[in-house]
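In this section we walk through a basic example: taking a raw amino acid sequence and producing a predicted 3D structure, encoded as discrete structure tokens. The instruction is simple. Fold the sequence below.
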Amino acid sequence: MSSDLPASVSSLPLIGVNACSQRLPEKHPFFIVGEKYVRAVSDGAGGIPLVIPALGAQIPPEQLLEQLDGLLLTGSPSNIEPHHYAGEPSDPGSEHDPQRDATTLPLIRAAVKAGVPILGICRGFQEMNVALGGTLYQKVHEVEGYHDHREDKTTSINAQYNTLAHPITLKAGGVLASIWPHATEVQVNSLHGQGIQTLAPGLQVEAVADDGLIEAFSVKQAHRFALAVQWHPEWQWHPDDGVGEFPFYRAILKAFGDACRQRHIERTTNRTGKHNMAEIL
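The resulting token sequence is shown next.
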């Protein structure tokens, strides 16, 4: 069975991008994804972005993942509800997204099991840790020994994301070090209030900030690429003017895209083989 898509399109990996559930000013509910994440998939990873709505159990993870070649977990203004990691209740007025939690946490576990390439960013980084059994600090800036990793909201969005706020040290022999062999220390942006308290079983540290906070990890026994970062490499593809040039960010998305393309080749080859066998029989 041939695809209806042109070869140039059908040969691209299909990469899921998880959406947030939000009410916009008109108070109507929307499933939304930031354009920078969509462009990071299309321009950075070289894939076709597919937005995954936050429908919870209405989306069977295994069935969805059979159609995907990769999964990008986005950042968000909201935080994971603390009951997912046995945390204390959040302060009144804290922003949560239970529909996203109900969709993404099971999807992560299924994706790791299925060997689907994953890249987690910011909230997505925290979701991967929680989904696999880790815990979070809800206010890193109030924990003794750690810096304040939040952005300066008095500055412009471009300034917040373009600013290289602190260094991270890449762990020797890790996934991230193999992606970026040019240096053991790299500067990154920083726009998060929460952070990893305990790392989930089966994860390994890939990078730490200068205060010791975990900034990146990978899945130890992953069948394919499974990396998460606390900073925002997707900003490289933000559509606004004034975005800086960050080769380190580009290298991360390229490595993710390469893994997605490899899965796409294997997935479509297996599917074509099954179709050919069916025709013979």
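Looking at the output, two observations stand out. Residues 247-280 form the longest helix (34 residues). Helices lie at 7-10, 35-45, 61-65, 98-114, 123-131, 157-162, 175-179, 247-280. In the next section we compare this with other chains.
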